[in-house]
Design a protein that fits this description.
Blueprint: E1 3-7, H1 11-22, E2 26-30, H2 34-54, H3 63-68, E3 70-73, E4 84-87, H4 93-96, H5 99-106, E5 112-115, H6 122-126, E6 135-139, E7 149-154, H7 160-172, E8 176-181, H8 188-204, H9 210-220, H10 227-234, H11 236-250, H12 259-266
Parallel strand pairs: 1-2, 1-4, 2-3, 4-5, 5-6, 7-8
Antiparallel strand pairs: 6-7
Helix pairs in contact: 1-2, 8-10, 8-11
């Protein structure tokens, strides 16, 4: 499998497409907005240059060659000859649910669909298709090219063949995986979203400013970044959507989003991608 479809050219889609192209895969990158695709290619070129700096020259590739392996398009029909699809659209069921029945008609019966999600049920998505055994979750971490491991999620009907296929793609991208079972939030976000949300509550309750909240995690616990810095990196809108999915799934008040988080997202303060979150960028 040397041709992989990537749906969604946002922060995660850009990272996944870049990682694939750097690893020698040909990529079909699909989004509904031409401007987003143009911006995505510019980001991929710049990020590929920076990636060499961060890896201190251990990985050598030509950014122009990386970009040449990525073909952008506005229509999912171009994915008809792809045997592996990675979907990265926003973490909202209303958006994701329309994609999979369409993909099911377009792609070969053998194609595997990987859902890049942090919270949404893989089994539920599989139920939208005629191939629930060929659906799995792959929760990539941001920034994708710099992370060595992903959280892979087995749905109720995901076959071992599908997991083996995904393992091959991930190995080609230079990644290991940790396989977990399908419950909303899985492991990483079921824990992480609570941590970030509670950190936001401490800011709202004026226990400490954002800088000191993050310093406690970095200097006392040895974390490389604090929960508010992590929230800004992920995107505070994504944090909010994930909490809403978790609250709806478990009906547990511990997942209730902090009002300050809702206010910041309403104000467009979504973190790094918007230039302002708990910090200025």
């Amino acid at each position: 499998m040397k041709k992989v479809g990537v749906i969604g050219a946002g922060v995660m889609g850009v990272g996944v497409a870049q990682n694939l192209a750097q690893s020698g895969f040909n990529v079909r990158l699909v989004d509904v907005n031409e401007d987003i695709l143009i911006h995505a290619k510019r980001e991929i070129y710049n990020n590929a240059r920076m990636h060499q700096f961060y890896t201190r020259g251990k990985e050598s590739f030509d950014p122009d060659e990386v970009l040449s392996r990525i073909e952008g398009d506005l229509h999912m029909d171009v994915l008809s000859d792809c045997d592996f699809i990675i979907e990265n659209v926003t973490e909202k069921w209303e958006v994701k649910k329309d994609i999979y029945p369409a993909l099911d008609k377009i792609c070969p019966e053998s194609a595997v669909f990987a859902v890049n999600t942090s919270c949404i049920s893989i089994t539920k998505i599989g139920g939208l298709t005629r191939r629930p055994d060929r659906i799995l979750g792959i929760h990539f971490m941001n920034p994708v090219p710099l992370k060595s491991t992903v959280e892979a999620i087995r749905g109720a009907y995901t076959s071992q063949e599908t997991i083996d296929c995904a393992a091959g793609i991930l190995a080609g991208m230079g990644k290991k995986y940790i396989l977990v079972n399908d419950m909303p939030g899985f492991v990483s976000n079921r824990v992480l979203m609570l941590t970030i949300n509670e950190a936001i509550w401490t800011v709202q309750d004026q226990v400490a400013p954002p800088e000191d909240v993050d310093r406690i995690f970095k200097e006392c616990f040895g974390h490389t970044s604090g929960p508010l810095e992590t929230g800004d990196l992920i995107g505070l809108d994504t944090i909010l959507y994930s909490l809403e999915v978790l609250y709806e799934s478990y009906q547990d008040p511990k997942f209730r989003a902090c009002p300050l988080l809702r206010q910041m997202v309403s104000a467009g303060k979504c973190g790094r991608k918007s230039g302002q979150g708990f910090y200025q960028y």
